[in-house]
Each structure stands twice: as structure tokens, then as C-alpha cells.
Amino acid sequence: MSDTRTVIDEFFRRVGNGDIAGLGEFFAETVDLNVYGAEEVPWTGRRTTKAEAVAFFKTLPEYLQPQEFSVAKVFIDGEDAVVLGRMVQKVKPTGLLFDSPFAFHFTVVDGKITRYIAYEDSLALARSFGVG
User: Fold this and answer.
1) What ranges do the domains of the chain cover?
2) What CATH number does the domain located at 4-128 have?
3) Closest Cα partner for 74 from 3, 1, 5?
4) Cα atoms in the Cβ-side hemisphere of radius 13 Å centred on 10
5) Distance between CA atoms of 16 and 4, rounded to whole angstroms?
6) Which segments of the chain does DSSP mark as H helices, in order?
7) pTM of the shown model
8) Residue 106 near residue 114 (C-beta atoms within 8 A)
9) 18: which of 12, 25, 62, 114 lies 20 to 30 Å off by Cα?
10) How far is Cα 87 from Cα 57, in angstroms, rounded to an integer?
11) Which H helix or E strand runs over 35?
12) Structure confidence by residue, pLDDT tens digits, 35-85
């Protein structure tokens, strides 16, 4: 599994199946993973290693309960992919819903994800987490 489309498709298949432990095989040892947002939201911020990327995905279920997740479009340009869609998550600490469109920017080099940048409604996320 080395081409960008195959890696992205398998990544989302595993996320959809709840196979968070298996995501580690997709990340390079050094990665640029960033989720923009309020510092009070535990999973926002930058990660730079495979271990930190895996820990990020393992942390999400502690705080979020998926309600809806849909991928509308995947754009591939060589090593880069942009995935557009919509997600609705229940924020466990508050019981509030986080409803947001998203764009995820991936870079895949030699079959490994080297970049994962999440663009989502960070204000709505902060508010559903009880911040702001």
C-alpha cells in the first residue's frame, strides 16, 4: 500500500471501523499533525512523531462520541490529498454536539502519512467543549 489514494481510503476505512490501534502503521516516524483550536480543548495542537499521532487518535474517543461522519470528496494530487466532509460529534464532558464541515490535508510519502492537518470549525468546537 503505497499510493496516496490507497493509503487515504484504508485510513478512513479503519477509522470508520474503530480500528484506532491499527492507525499507527499509516504514520511516518516524523509527522506534521496539527489540529487548530482553543488550548482548553485537549486534542488541539501540533504533534511531530508517530507515537504522538497515534496518541492523538486514541485520545479522541475519551472526549467525543461520533454521531455522523461523511466524506463528500477526496482530491488527490501526487503525494497530497484533501478530504472534505462533515462530522457531528457528541462532546462527552458537556453533552453538547459539535457539528462541523471539515477539510483534512494529508501528505503521503512512500506509503506513510507525513502530514495531517485538520481544518474544522474551531469556534464551534470550543463552544461545544464549554470554552468561549
Assistant:
1) 4-128
2) 3.10.450.50
3) 5
4) 17
5) 18
6) 4-16, 50-63, 122-128
7) 0.91
8) no
9) 114
10) 15
11) strand 27-35
12) 998 888 888 999 999 999 999 998 999 999 999 999 999 999 999 999 999
